[in-house]
Design brief:
Two copies of one chain form a homodimer. Chain A is mainly alpha-helical. The first copy, chain A, contains seven helices and three strands. In chain A, α1 crosses α4, α2 packs across α3 and α6 runs antiparallel to α7. Chain A binds a DNA duplex (30 and 30 nucleotides) through α2 and α3.
DNA sequence: GCACATATAATCAGTATTGAATAATCATGA
DNA sequence: TCATGATTATTCAATACTGATTATATGTGC
């Protein structure tokens, strides 16, 4: 799910592009946040062509072998927006990855973004509460000598959820301007 | 890679277990941090049996249909420790997930843990520096009207790396005691 | 006593991802 | 000039993951 969003987003913003070019764009621009392997890109380009989200054109340049250059279609643009919305709306997010929607924020409806961020905000504070409660429950099943250390796992998650919450609040303020 | 660590760890700590029981343990104890689907568990149990990391025994209880109960082998225990080390040592970690090693910290050599956490600490502050520098570079390729918003993506990552750093320092202090 | 939901248990077919292999071109410097 | 390594570009086989399906067992209210 993550991969198609990126491909469609890059094709929309910088397209038309061929597979290898796409991979380099991803590497140059979002490699801090996500990794996408070349075969994965080719795989999805093919799938998306079948679905009519992109069209391929065989191009010859110089003496180089032919290559397929892809463009996003109208249908692809609609799908892109739908995927962005879905990605941003996901609830269970223990990896804290919302990089694609952030990267393509400008393609989204600001009202949708704000609504979604507020939901995430609610969700995060719920998780923080739940984490405290669940922690005790889980600890009972962990051998006593491992408990002190296992506690670090909950600590780890708490700190990240707090960071997420902080970011959501910053972003909502920023979007308000 | 994540899944086998959990399976081996649970078999070591609570085993012998059958597939469904494993899935429930994962759901009860680490569902805040990771999700593992049933078919994935069955898939890996089979793979790991082939590799000799676990042994299966068909068991009949009451009128219930037979089911395979798995135990960890000596080889499996060695593999478990190796996997824990590898997982903790991973450098590129944009998801901030180190839940398995944390959960099974008590199985690891404290010296290894400290060494690895110190490495992570170094890595995190490197990333924070790099993020600042890379940010400007990336921004040049982003359409001006999208920049303010795309900046939130870097902000998001910075905050999480700072949270990670904070946790690493807390943990090193805690392990020192 | 029996309908209906939920829990237990496993499998399968379809989808996604990765490591490895292939092959051509380009840059370089000895 | 020509060998060597890096870059460009794609494909394939193997591996991993998921949604959907199947099937039995157990508990619950009526």
């Amino acid at each position: 799910m993550k991969v198609p969003v990126y491909i469609l987003g890059f094709l929309k913003r910088y397209g038309p592009l061929h597979g290898y070019r796409l991979k380099r764009l991803v590497a140059d621009m979002v490699s801090d946040f996500t990794q996408i392997k070349l075969p994965t890109i080719y795989y999805h380009l093919e799938k998306m062509e079948e679905k009519g989200l992109v069209t391929a054109e065989r191009k010859q340049e110089g003496r180089r072998p032919e290559r397929s250059v892809y463009s996003i279609t109208k249908k692809g643009e609609r799908e892109f927006l739908a995927l962005l919305r879905d990605t941003l709306a996901v609830r269970y997010r223990p990896e804290f990855q919302i990089d694609a929607p952030l990267f393509f924020f400008d393609s989204m409806d600001p009202a949708d973004i704000v609504a979604s961020l507020r939901e995430q905000e609610k969700h995060c504070s719920d998780v923080l509460d739940h984490l405290e409660a669940h922690r005790e429950e889980v600890m009972q099943h962990i051998p006593p000598e491992a408990r002190r250390i296992a506690g670090l796992m909950f600590q780890h998650h708490s700190l990240h959820y707090r960071a997420e919450l902080e970011w959501l609040q910053d972003s909502l303020r920023e979007l308000d301007r």
